[in-house]
Amino acid sequence: MRADALLFHDDFRLAPYWWDAAPPETSRVALPPSVDLVIVGSGYCGLSAAAEAARQGASVAVLDAAEIGAGGSTRSGGMVSSGQKLALTDAIRGVSAERLGRLMAESTASFDYLKRLIADEALDADLQITGRFFGAFTPGHFERLRRQGDLLREKTGVTAHVVTRAEQRVMVGSDYYYGGILVDEYGGLHTAKYHRALRELARRCGASLHSHAAVERIERTGTRFRVHTARGKIDAGQVLVATNGYTGRLLPFFSRRVLPVASYQIATEPLPPGLMEVLNPGRRMISDSKRNLFYTRPSPDGTRMLFGSRPSFREIGERAAARILHAKMVQLWPALRDVRITHAWKGYVAMTGDKLAHIGERDGVFYALGCNGNGVALMTYLGQRIARTLLGLDAVPGAFGEGPFPLSPGGMASTLIVPVGAALYQLDDCWNGRVRGALS
Ligand SMILES: Cc1cc2nc3c(=O)[nH]c(=O)nc-3n(C[C@H](O)[C@H](O)[C@H](O)COP(=O)(O)OP(=O)(O)OC[C@H]3O[C@@H](n4cnc5c(N)ncnc54)[C@H](O)[C@@H]3O)c2cc1C
Question: Where do the FAD dependent oxidoreductase domain residues begin and end (predicted)?
Fold first, then answer.
């Protein structure tokens, strides 16, 4: 591994690259004494729900324990999905064909919803529909991706192209993969600019946003709620929990069902002129078929490489993670060996027992949680859906509101299960690495 002085840029920061353009916001405005709806969590889900409910005439207060937007939403890769994860993971195991069809249709609807929202509200989000290349780590994975491409085409109507190894340099300037598939209906946005635009939208619709107001207890008072926060109490007609990967022990029902898992990313300094065109000619979103996958994309202005993966079985510091991520990035693109890192950060994704997001109501408290690392479009969409449900505007919450919300083994014993689960993933990738070694 390279010496730190060569690896880290002089301006290196332990913060998301995205925050340079649009940092999270401190908002210490006084809490209102009473509102129709309190929303716990100020990510895409909470803000989207707030905008919808306020637009419908409800008085809404969004409360966040930290700064507004300091959670997963502004820490993500900003890849905008039309629902492939449902087919490309084993989330669909045990789901009836009928429900699977509706889950996929709603995932596609979330992609369309996000595009429409950004266009209709003129949100400054740097959205670019570029497509996403899924690279095959082994020849066997290539065959699996080819089959999954067929399934996607059939179930969601997306355009999935098979890309052979001989053709793949049009997608990724590397021989690391054994071909893959390209899905056209996929894009990327600027996570923090999009969040800032959603904040402005929620406020324009009439919602108030409050940072540093951790919700410590939710007390039932007859048909209403008293919400106890670090900054005082609010009386609320309804409560929505939108805490995703930052779900703590506020309500045991949720902490037993959602497992926060850290995900890490780095950003490089601007690349030498012409290099991005070689490494990622279409400026696409790229990920792969490994369990502990690489996910990478250019910054929206096309100058820097952003790269994410899980660096270790256990949670580690961002600086140590950055060294490992840089080494992984160089496996994919040896030409980036001498390019320095300017930013390293982590955020928490919310894993669930069945790998599906869930929306609904429990003991009078509404929730939208558990996007399993696929939340830019989905949590925006589910926020709006759950708002319409709790206001009584939609009779049913949709496919993500059906079925039981199963216990998550990890959520129940997170300190033990995460390392074990991660270790199994790593073993699987090691085995596949040996398969690759034998082929090369
Ligand atoms: C590193 C990383 C990369 C990702 N990459 C992608 C990607 O490329 N594409 C994609 O689609 N998705 C991706 N995701 C997933 C996705 O972007 C987010 O998880 C999603 O935006 C979650 O939105 P949210 O509104 O549900 O929650 P968040 O944005 O995480 O917000 C939850 C908020 O709840 C607050 N909170 C928690 N408890 C309390 C409390 N008691 N009181 C008050 N506030 C509380 C937290 O402070 C936090 O701000 C990624 C996630 C991470 C972390």
Answer: 36-388
